[in-house]
Amino acid sequence: MKHDAAIHVPSVGAADFPFGLGKSGLHELAEASYGDSPAMTGFLLAAMRKQAKGAWIWIRQASIFRDIGEVPEAALAGGSASLRLNVQARNAREALWATEEAILSGAASLVIAEIEGADFTATRRLTLASSRHGVPVVLMLPYTCEGATAAVTRWRVGPRPSSSNRFDKHAPGHPRWRAVLERCRTTPASTGKAFDLEWNDETLSLSVVAGLADGPAAPRPALRPLHHKIG
Amino acid sequence: MDRLRRARRSARSTTRSVKPTPFVLYEKSAHGLVVIAANAPARAARIETGLRLTDAKATLPNILSEEIDRAADMKALTALAGWLVRFSPLVAFDGEDGLVLETTGCDHLFGGEVAMAAQLSRHLAQVSYTHRIAIAGTLGAAHALARGTSTAEYPTLPSGEERCGLANLPMATLRLSPEALTLLRRFGLTRIGQLYDIDRKALTRRFHSREAANAVCLRLDQALGRRVEPFVPFRPPPEHAERLPCPEPLTSLEGISDGLKQLTEKLCASLSAAGLGAQNFTFRAFHSDGGVSAVSANAARPARAPEHVLRLFREKIARIDPGFGIDLLLLEAARTGPMEAGSRPLSGDFAGGEFDVEALTVLADRITARLGEGTVTLVTPEDSHLPHKAERQVDYIGQSPGTSPRPRTGPRPVRMLAQPERVSVMAQVPDGPPLQFIWRRHLRRVVRADGPERIAPEWWTYLPPAPGERGNPPRTRDYYRIEDSEGRRYWVFRDGLYGDDRGTAPEWIVQGLFE
Questions:
Q1: Chain A with chain B: Cβ pairs closer than 8 A
Q2: CA separation, residue B263 to residues B118, B244, B404, B415 (Å)
Q3: 3-state class (DSSP) for residue B144
Q4: B405, B399 contact by CB (below 8 A)
Q5: Which of B363, B385, B435 to probe the A interface (max A CBs under 10 A)?
Q6: Does the pLDDT value for residue A219 go beyond 90?
Q7: CB contact under 8 A, B391 and A90
Q8: Which of residues 164-223 of A touch B (CB under 8 A)?
Q9: Under DSSP, is residue B395 helix (H, G, I), strand (E, B) or coil?
Q10: Burial of B151 by CB count in 10 Å (0-12 exposed, 13-18 middle, 19+ buried)?
């Protein structure tokens, strides 16, 4: 999946990088294409790394669970979730209900819902509940999600070839993702920017890298057609 | 004074026909089709239990017959037992066609034993069950009295008078096996009273085994109250219960909700007086036309806050169909346990831990009440190095998550597939990851790979096949972390080694996906 958006390299003081993801309000993450869910999950967990500790409620719809599986506890180890409750919902309606219930309960420090779709009304409801109770909510949506949303941001996340491995050039290195900020209510100027991110699981840092640090250059059309014959 | 009353009814709902048509139920037996039950017109033609169906048809050519459905009868009897709980909390089955009520302490609510029997009889007649009610001090005496007498309306036998009261009743009412009954009839013993004066040793010698003779003596002693017979209720009685009789039958959901609210407040008050909380609440609504609707709610930890219990019932109460009216509401609490009542912190900032267990269990209860059991889970680590056995989902009941007993031995993916999926490998090298493979109908070209991480099988859990049977021991797995040309990263393993003599050629399987 290629995005034609310009690579945005934020300045050192770009403190607003995740644009409030997981800190307050409702945010949406969407797959760039089918099967990008692991990249999306990795991006979320990396962005949530420095949050205050607390209980996470992870709501998942059964169809998504069957398709892409669960997030094992080992992937959360050392993160900010001191306890994670899994909630299995049969359909999107039940999942949205459970999400709202989790926000209202006052027990969760973060609510994550994997849902196959949420319309504007549903996201508006969740936004209001989230702002009233001060609980951040993240919706993880499939690549089919489109259209209006009441969420603060919508990210579209897909994988990129990983960085080169210092110790073994045949092995994958640190994972990289491309996160495109599709919508952003707080800073509309940033809408449409694409971030190429690298997650370092040794230093536990999420950094923005140049798009061409590794991997092939994107093909581009020749500037002018070659008219003259060679030889 | 311990008193028992017993209600007997013919459990066959199909014999309820009002039309005086001869009708029998039959069952297949070793002697062909045998009549099990007959209605009054058939009995008038001397068609009794035990007669063959062909003989019955010869007697009455126009007789109707149907095969007995014992499972449905048992279900109807269970439903009736559940409904009779309104008369006494202790109800037990008596064979396949009878019910026993322990009425100690309940009869005065209805104005005495006979008045209670009359009310019971009226209710049963309303739902058109033919029945016989007898009141006696022991289970055996009540059983015999209900089946053996036909004169009095509600035959009553005060405790201590069983000996003379039962003397004239037929032997068949003593709950004996058919073989024992046949033998006793051959001796000429047809009335219970004839057994009183017979020497037990002499009686024992007549039977082919000591057990058969002892069974007869046991039943006689139980009926006479010389030996104690345990009372086994058909459902364990609740530890705490509250009931609310309605003077006027309720027909609306609002009325039921109001009743539930009153009951919950009363029950929670009595629970908190006892310092207890309950994990299971059952709400029963008794229909005035017979039958009970019940809904139950479970709590992850003992609870007794009325608003919480009401909240759990809110989603479910709509399942109660008022029907023709509900005249009694009952709320039962089971699985009670001591409550850990603590003072709540003034605000979240003062909370001791990183999360609020109480609020989490309340949330888990609410979600479980609506989405069903087993939907709220916590992942607990297991002591296994096999990735699919290293974690287990358990229902959340307020426990804290455990820490993994094993250190991580290698990279673990961010997503574990619900079911590991087999891939077809297009190009493989003997000792290394595949170069190309098809997973979910897409060809994926491997660019980079890392591994293997070899995980040996748990040979200590393997049970070798019995001699003559075939079975392969579990296989070693080689896990690889691979990345394809699109940047997607997979966790694949080869199930087995080449040439390990454990089945066919090894297969490649995707178990997880890396971020």
A1: 175
A2: 29, 7, 45, 47
A3: helix
A4: no
A5: B363
A6: no
A7: no
A8: 165, 168, 170-172, 175-177, 199, 215
A9: strand
A10: exposed
Instruction: Give tens-digit pLDDT for A145-194.
Output: 888 999 999 999 999 999 888 888 889 999 999 999 999 998 888 888 88
CA distance B268 to B345: 23
Q: What does the alpha-carbon distance between residue B203 and residue A164 come to, in Å, rounded to a whole number? A: 96
Three-state helix/strand/coil letters over chain A: CCCCCCECCCCCCCCCCCCCCCCCCEEEEEECCCCCHHHHHHHHHHHCCCCCCEEEEEEEEHHHHHHHCECCHHHHCCCCEEEEEEEEECCHHHHHHHHHHHHHHCCCCEEEEECCCCCHHHHHHHHHHHHHHCCCEEEEECCCCCCCCCCCEEEEEEEECCCECCCCCCCECCCEEEEEEEEECCCHHHCCCEEEEEEECCCCEEEECCCCCCCCCCCCCCCCCCCCCCC
- pLDDT band at residue B479 under the 50/70/90 scheme: very high
CA atoms of B45 and B63, how far apart (whole Å): 11
* pLDDT tens digits, A100-151: 999 999 889 999 999 998 999 999 999 999 999 999 999 999 999 888 999 9
Rounded to the nearest angstrom, the minimum Cα separation between A230 and chain B is: 34
CA A58, distance to chain mean position in Å, is: 15
Q: What does the alpha-carbon distance between residue A39 and residue A45 come to, in Å, rounded to a whole number?
A: 10
CB B376 within 8 A of CB A85: yes
Place of tokens 């199909």: B14
Q: What is the pLDDT of residues B392-437, one digit of tens each?
A: 889 988 888 877 767 778 888 999 999 999 999 887 777 888 899 9
**What single DSSP character describes residue B45?**
T
Residues of A in contact with B482 (CB under 8 A): 172
Query: Do A88 and B377 meet the contact criterion of CB atoms below 8 Å apart?
Result: yes
**Helix (H), strand (E) at residue B28:** strand B23-29
Q: Does the structure show a pLDDT above 50 at B9?
A: no
Nearest residue of B to residue A75, measured between CA atoms: B414
Q: Which residues contact B33 (CB under 8 A, 6 or more apart)?
A: B26, B27, B52, B53, B54
Calculated CA dihedral for residues A67, B372, B300, B378, nearest 10 degrees:
0
Q: With H, G, I as helix, E, B as strand and everything else as coil, classify residue B167.
A: coil
Identify the residue among B392, B395, B515 best suited for mutation to test binding to A, counting A beta carbons within 10 A and taking the highest: B515
φ, ψ at B254 (rounded to 5°)? -65, -40
3-state secondary structure at position B401: coil
